[in-house]
């Protein structure tokens, strides 16, 4: 006779985050009340956990040295070392660490400095309860997170630079260099590229060296990835 007792639902209905290690977060802000409020926002999420706090940039760096963290959430304006200075130090100290800037400043200059310092996201304190959790998760997926106004600022600045001739990606490579890059990415050897373009192998090697130098790349694989991103070849 079959057992009338149905199997317990505990295992089947366990939430997916039950066995997932939470994202370990370092939170740095010189105002204790702000840290407390931000920590409440983060710690109520099962996949996020604040494991260290700091009152300034120097403390943040010390915390990163002594504790295992996945993500640093830094205020921009802090004593001793600012969040921007701390971001630069942390990016050098822990290359795999994700960094978010949390700030009250809706300021283009701060935004650009934060991105240049190594931050992958810029979140305004005024909407932290809406955006911060999503920004943390995006950072750990290696995706940038910017509030809508920041995206507008980036586009406007880029277009201004193009109009003034300061930045024109189309002129970064010469037409011949683009041809060589495309053929390299398609897997052709230097000899094959020379035959296709009716140039010498030595010239192909010179073009490849120029490509690596101009693009700041190191090998054929990185050239191929760049060519895919530039739309020269299909992935």
Automatic annotation (TrEMBL):
PANTHER family membership: TRANSCRIPTIONAL REGULATORY PROTEIN NARL-RELATED (PTHR43214:SF24), TWO-COMPONENT RESPONSE REGULATOR (PTHR43214)
Residues carrying 4-aspartylphosphate: 75
Coiled-coil parts of chain: none
Source organism of the structure: Streptomyces hygroscopicus
Protein name: DNA-binding response regulator
Keyword set, alphabetical order: DNA-binding, Phosphoprotein, Transcription, Transcription regulation
InterPro entries assigned: CheY-like_superfamily (IPR011006), NreC/VraR/RcsB-like_REC (IPR058245), Sig_transdc_resp-reg_C-effctor (IPR016032), Sig_transdc_resp-reg_receiver (IPR001789), Tscrpt_reg_LuxR_C (IPR000792), WalR-like (IPR039420)
Residue ranges occupied by any Response regulatory domain in the UniProt entry: 24-140
Keyword DNA-binding: yes
GO MF: DNA binding
